[in-house]
Amino acid sequence: MVTTATGRISDSLSTRRWILTGALAAAGLGWFLMAVIQTYWQALVVSVTLFSFQGTVYAQLLAILRDSMRARGEIAQGTVGSAIRMSLSIGYAAGPLLGTIASALAGYRWTFALAAALWLVVLWVTVRLSLPTTSKNSRPTAKSRGLPTAAVVTFALAGMIALSGDTIKVAYIPILVVNRLHQTPIAIGLLFGLGTAAEIITMPLAGRLADRFGFQRVIVSALLIGVADYALLAESSSLWQLYLVQLAHAGMLGALHGIGSLYVQTLSHGSIGAATSLLVSAQTLASPFGALVGSYGAGIVGVPAVFFVSSVLCGVAAIMTAATGWGDGRPRVAGSRLHA
Question: Can you give the pTM of this predicted structure?
């Protein structure tokens, strides 16, 4: 709710700086409090209040990225945007590892304090940066009032449904590897590590393809790859098949994460902040939704047949994305200015 609300507010402002800096300050304060609080209930309050602004930070960064590319007259938005998104993914992958090392060396309270310091460093950099303004052409009209279009809502739901299938995969693939294929936990780590490494390649590749063929076509194609790799996972009987699945699956995730926000922004008709925030919020809901559907499906059909559920979800997401219209999704250039 916080992410969606702040996204709509940012569209009505001349700059997203104040929303972003406020969210960064709230998140940094939250991690500082986590370093000193003493009870579970205090931690719960911090998580529900201050940590809710972390989604705002992510959504505002993606919205500012689009504002910057428009201001610079960037034509290769897919290539540039996916490369920036890739850098965020590297941070998500490195963070847990660095956090584990820090907590082992200094304890979890000092690790939380370090996290707070890093958020404040980002806040300091943001304050000093020259951020683009939201031009009149990029703001929602009085008629739309910043409300998301049907296409935006449809794609946001499609993203949630597709990523809920990934939640099922992450939850049940260890059971498949250990109980059915009789492999060690090391194999699980190698599988997930391969997928993460492959995404570093597939994200910029998806952006490059989107600049040539359009965001929507690339995303729909990636979701169809997801349909196939989930089905292969459900029928897998050897470890090498799972490695193949991970490589193919990185293509789907690379497209969804790398250019998904860029595509929803092209559907927004000016409400870039609201559309991006809605997509981020929907993706957050993928974990509980996928856990619920996965537990129900696994209880009925078992493992590995539950991965067919993920395949069906990915197919539904592909149809929904196609239903947003077959415009090529590429930026329109008029002179040196880009129009969403």
Answer: 0.84
